[in-house]
Amino acid sequence: MAVYVDNARLQAPHLLGGRARWSHLSADTREELEAFRQRLGLSPTWFQAHPYLWHYDVVERMRLKAIALGAEEVTPAELVERRRKADGRKP
C-alpha cells in the first residue's frame, strides 16, 4: 500500500493569476487516499473520480507537504501504471 504524488506541475490558469501549478495525488486504495487527504487538509469535495486515475489535484505547496508526509514522488506515467497495477488492470 502506498500514496503517490506525481510531478506533473501543470499550469492552473484559474489559480493565483495563472501562477499556480498542480499535480495529482493518488494511492493504491481509496481508503488510503482518504486517510492521507485528511492529513493534508484537502476537502473531500475536491476528489476527481476519473475511472482510470481517481485522484486529488494538489498545488505545489501541498505536493511538497505530501512528500514530507511520506507520499512517493512519481512521474505522471508511473502514477497511471501504479493505479493500473493496484486495480489489477493490465498495461
How would the blueprint of this fold be written?
Elements: E1 3-6, E2 10-12, E3 20-27, H1 30-40, E4 47-48, E5 55-59, H2 60-68, E6 72-74, H3 76-87
Parallel strand pairs: 1-6
Antiparallel strand pairs: 1-3, 2-3, 3-5, 4-5
Report on the structure:
The chain is α+β, with helices and mostly antiparallel strands and 91 residues long. It has one domain. The protein has 3 helices and 6 strands, in the order E-E-E-H-E-E-H-E-H. Strands 1, 2, 3, 4, 5 and 6 form a 6-stranded mixed beta sheet that branches. A hairpin with a 6-residue loop joins strand 4 and strand 5. The model has no long low-confidence stretch (mean pLDDT 87).
Summarize the structure.
By secondary structure, the chain is of the alpha+beta class.
Beta-strand residue fraction: 25-35%
Structural class: alpha+beta
Average predicted local confidence, pLDDT:
87
* Domain count: 1
Radius of gyration: 12 Å
Query: How widely separated are the two ends?
Result: 19 Å
Strand and helix order: EEEHEEHEH
Number of helices: 3
State the helicity in percent bands.
25-40%
Unreliable parts: none
General shape: globular
Assembly type of the chains comes to single chain
Q: How would a textbook summarize the main sheet?
A: 6 strands, mixed
Descriptive terms for the model:
alpha+beta, six-stranded mixed beta sheet, 91 residues, single chain, globular
